[in-house]
Amino acid sequence: MSELDTERSISLDTCAQEPIHLPGSIQPHGFLLVLDEPAMRVTMASESAAAYLDKPLHLLFGATLTELLGADAGLESLLEKEVTTSSRYFKTLQVPAAGGRSFEVIGHRQGSFLIMEFEESVGHLDTEAVQIEIYNFMTELRQMRSLGEICSGAVTLLRKLTGFDRVLLYSFDDAGHGNVLAEDRNAELPSYLHLRFPSSDIPEQARRLYVVNRVRVIPDVDYVPSRILDEEGSTPEFDLSGSVLRSVSPIHRDYMRNMGTAASMSVSIVSSGRLWGLVSFHNRSPRRVPYRLRTACDFLVQVVTSHIEALLESEKLSRAIDLTSIQHRLLTWMAAEDNYLLALTSHGSDLMALTGAHGAAIVLDQSCTLVGNTPSADQVLDFTAWLQQSARGDVFATSSAVSIYPPASHFAACASGVVAVSISKLHDSYVLWFRPEVVQSVRWAGDPQKPVAQGKGDLTIHPRNSFESWMQILRGHSLPWLPEEINAASAFRAAILEVVLRRAEEMARLAGDLEVANRELEAFSYSVSHDLRAPFRHIAGFAELLREEESGHLTSRGQHYVDTIVESARFAGLLVDSLLNFSRIARVQISPTAVDMTQLFKDEWGDVVREDGNQRQIEFTAESLPKVMGDPQLLRQVARNLLSNALKYTRHQPHATVSISATREGREYIFSVEDNGVGFDQRYADKLFGVFQRLHRMEDFEGTGIGLANVRRIITRHGGRTWAQGETGKGAIFYFSLPVIA
Amino acid sequence: MLKPILIVEDNPRDLELTLSALEKSKLANEVIVARDGEEGANYLFRKGEYADRAIGNPAVVLLDLKLPKIDGLELLAMVRKSPELEHLPVVMLTSSREEKDVINTYKLRVNAYVVKPVEFKEFVQAIQDLGVFWAVLNEPPPGSMRVLRNGNR
């Protein structure tokens, strides 16, 4: 591929150190003269100069260009124009001293030296035809919308223009790994399409060189290098970075021979000063490419480069827009759901698209929800536990989990790449995205694994070995996460936290509202207690005084009215007191102590029966009830309410039974208070526990209708539940549960 | 001579009911009525309209909690801070059964806290019991007697 692909194969150490810009020689299809400024006389020359100019080398030193090439060469005046460090084409020059052969004259500056290269002209170039081809292609380019289309269009045209057997276009990813994107070839050479090779194939100094000097050419791999010599006959260390004739590494020539190519050329794709990719030209037999055609190729590649840049930029932009709208959609769903994080999993494809992942997971307090292609839930939980423990920060991204977390080897195939964002400082809560191992995700066109015919020589230097090496290097790696993908994850995390924060604020606001409401309620019940009771007391008091002192003046009907007033005022007072008690239950501090429920129920039963005063035969059982933790005063109210209800509603039973029992179910005790009284319609079972809800007429069964509401409130405050079961005329069972003492 | 009973009560109807209850109890003690906390304080500290009253503390103060100007708790606090009156028997006679009120009142070393019953018979019974207990059975604190006898301060 490139001339430096091979250096990996010999020795990575020497490769990185080889001074490839200082070869000390050129290829022999032209000659090179170094002029010393300001004298403008030759101080160094390539051996080939002597041959081309038919003059011993030592006679060249100290001569001017006019002296060597003839007065009509007119080069001196051309050189007055600015010569820069990058090479410049001056003219095509016919040199009488070289037997009338034509040369392309190219020059560039290197310190205080002018380096003049004379590349022997080759063949006839129909510049007009080339121009038309390029022009037409540029028109077509405007219609092309995909990278693949642009790249294959470019290689097709480049091969057509240059006549090489094979033209490849490949790109480098951020890690520097190469990937052949497009190829055009004839049957002479095999396909390398979609081959990949590791970044180490092209060391850093080579990349720099390729950025500076975009076009390199090797017309004949079997050339004999032509040394550059100075007057003393030695080869000075001389930077040939800008040279078009520069000689290449002998190893690279071995490499070319192994590939079965005698001639090659490459043109760099440089984007924003970075080596984005290369176009590589190969030919089975030696091949010269006219200088101006190479220039045209370079021009074409630059045009293509700018199209690729624009395309990538617009893809990036539209991806950014996509990401924003994906994020927006996800947040909308999250906002709509109570369980906002799990809302993400029902929109898994968007969640994955956010970072270009193949799988995702949401970890919330030790529970894990998976979407797409992922490790198992346990593996994910182990991984997040490790993340938490190793304090990897809020946003964690790796394209090779296994390199930092060895257990990841078990799920490398589906999740070599991991992005994890922490969404809670307190709990192990994460959103994670996964990418498969890259060698699993590469799609093949053709079969790069197919063995090629082994040629002679050392075939360790071969693109297919590069491919093998690339696969080894990228075992356990995913495609890299792009900065914008990590940014998307990070922005998403911020958005989630905002949602979480907003929820928390909402909760805090609600709690605040509740507190205000509670205070108002407290103020209300206080005023009820103090202000409402007073008028009832007055009504009752004065009605009583009326009855005592003035009953002689009242008719019997009048006395009945007064009795009713007294009774109503008394009942009103009772209601107010009940309501007050009810509101107090909600606010009172619970002071839990161990309560013996058997004793409690027996005590209360005694009290209730005494107050009832009704002499009846009632069978009461309350045996071996458990001890619970609770507020004795409040639990006493529970027992009293339930027992007085049982007593009240069995009033008409000749053989009343009231029995209390308890069973343990898991972490709670279920208590039941069962009677054989009038019962109730099961349809109204839940109404029973409402405030002032009554299922019987007042004249049948007296009461304020708040007793069971108190029971429910007290039991709820103890962490229990209340329910009831009954049938009209067949008794009732009231249940309540209380937590088992830990 | 029987020491008087001081009633501090702003509500005329409660006052009337209290007075009729006391009437029914046939206590011989004089009943002094103050209609707000300030008047109650003036009587106790012999200020304002009571600046010239004869020296001597009541047998008991029946004090309402919610009162205009100076409320029951404030008046109780004033009484407990005063060296002459700190042992004066004070009974909080109120409609409120609020725990907060009960606790705050006891913190100020009230002698009794009585919630006015809604039912008149109970109310009469309560007032009578209070009158009999504090005005007849209870031995008043000796400190105030000494002040009374010495006539100074």
TrEMBL record, chain A:
Domain of life: Bacteria
Sequence ranges assigned to domain Histidine kinase in this UniProt record: 527-742
InterPro entries: BphY/WalK/GraS-like, GAF, GAF-like_dom_sf, HATPase_C_sf, HATPase_dom, His_kinase_dom, HisK_dim/P_dom, HisK_dim/P_sf
Catalytic activity: ATP + protein L-histidine = ADP + protein N-phospho-L-histidine
EC id: 2.7.13.3
Keyword Ribonucleoprotein: no
Name of the protein in its database record: histidine kinase
From TrEMBL, chain B:
Modified residues (4-aspartylphosphate): 64
Pfam short name (any one): Response_reg
Keyword Phosphoprotein appears in the UniProt entry: yes
Signal sequence region: none
Keywords, in A-Z order: Phosphoprotein
Domain of life: Bacteria
Residue ranges annotated for the Response regulatory domain, each copy included: 4-131
Example of a GO biological process term: phosphorelay signal transduction system
Name this protein carries in UniProt: Response regulator receiver domain-containing protein
Annotated Gene3D superfamilies: 3.40.50.2300
